[in-house]
Amino acid sequence: MVLVLHGAAMTEGLEKHPWLVDLTNRLGAGVQLFFVLSGFVITAAMDRAASFGDGSSGFLLRRLAKLGPLYLIFLHLNIAFFWLWSAHDPDPHFFRNSVTGDNLNVENYGLHLLFLQGLSPAYINTLLDGGWSIVCEVYFYALAPFVFHPLCRSLRRAIWALAVSILVAIGFTMAVGKHMGAFGYYAFPVQLPCFVMGILVYRARERFTIDLPSELQAPIAVTIALFVFGFLRTNVSPLGGHVMIAILFALALLVLRVHTGRGLLGALQAIGRQSYALFLVHLFLLKIAYTTVFANGFYPGLWLALCLNLAISVLGALALSWLIFDRIDRFFVTAMARYLSSRRKAH
């Protein structure tokens, strides 16, 4: 959803077709679906870390090995591309959320190195496009072992935590977010209920199961997907429509059972394992294509440009991820797993 959204959003002329803009905007809900999944999977990871004896430090080291290397690589690739292209073109045409001479400074660079740009409305989407969602993940990971895992050890506590997270989102939006434009959507407190819903679903599935006949799962999944897709993209104050989408997805997680599969399901799972690398790669490729090609006079028409951008965003990102960046990702994740295993044996 996110790969297609960005491929379409970076296509010049799309705004001339409001129905197409409305269609692609709905794909932005993929971010909230990912946050719900993150809450679900991270709760499982925390339980696993506790059972292995890795503790909070082991959990955080695994998360650092997963997020840190590719984040630093693409942060510096974006800066390097800006420097190289600026030397070639003193008046570069950079598209949305890009490195510029104004935002490339010591303060902003330091914020990005420490994952703190999510606290700054001015810098949250500058040196690394899409970085707002990564820092939301980082803040959730940082709080998980000390706040969410201890407080959400039971289903009852997880429900109360969801209520508190919704109050936090409402309070933040009313007190701060409404005065800061788009920051009212990008800020971690606004997205917090999505993460907590994932935790709640995980705890609910520990307590009870809903065993639907297999022939009912597909139509239910399709119905929920269509409901999410059809939900109007509105900014319902003081709680955004993204929370409703996350609730529907959480219900789907509670009801459905997905097993390792072959065919289309197996292919989607293989892509899902590369989701982090794909996210970073596709935005960088789209920026290069826009700056070097589309912003310099080459415009083959809306539909061909859209097809080219989608090919770059999906197929190009898959190729580079599989050949290079997912391998880097797995190298560091595997190395950290070995280190933690040796640490357990030493103790």
Description:
The N and C termini lie far apart (44 Å). Helix 1 (2-9) packs antiparallel against helix 14 (302-346), helix 6 (131-151) packs across helix 9 and helix 10 packs antiparallel against helix 11 (241-255). The chain contains 14 helices and no strands. The protein is globular, with a radius of gyration of 21 Å. The mean pLDDT is 86. With 347 residues, the chain is mainly alpha-helical.
CA-CA gap between termini = 44 Å
Helix content: over 70%
Structural class, please? mainly alpha
- Report Rg: 21 Å
DSSP summary, beta strand count: 0
Give the DSSP E fraction (strand runs of 2 or more residues): under 5%
Shape: globular
Give the integer mean of the pLDDT values: 86
Count of helical regions: 14
Query: Topology as H/E string?
Result: HHHHHHHHHHHHHH
Low-confidence stretches: none
In this structure, how is the largest beta sheet organized? Answer: none
Descriptive labels:
347 residues, mainly alpha, globular
Helices and strands in order:
Layout: H1 2-9, H2 18-25, H3 30-52, H4 55-88, H5 106-113, H6 131-151, H7 155-175, H8 183-186, H9 188-207, H10 214-230, H11 241-255, H12 263-272, H13 275-292, H14 302-346
Sum this structure up briefly.
73% of the residues lie in helices and 0% in strands. By secondary structure, it is mainly alpha-helical. Helix 3 (30-52) runs antiparallel to helix 4 and helix 10 (214-230) runs antiparallel to helix 11.
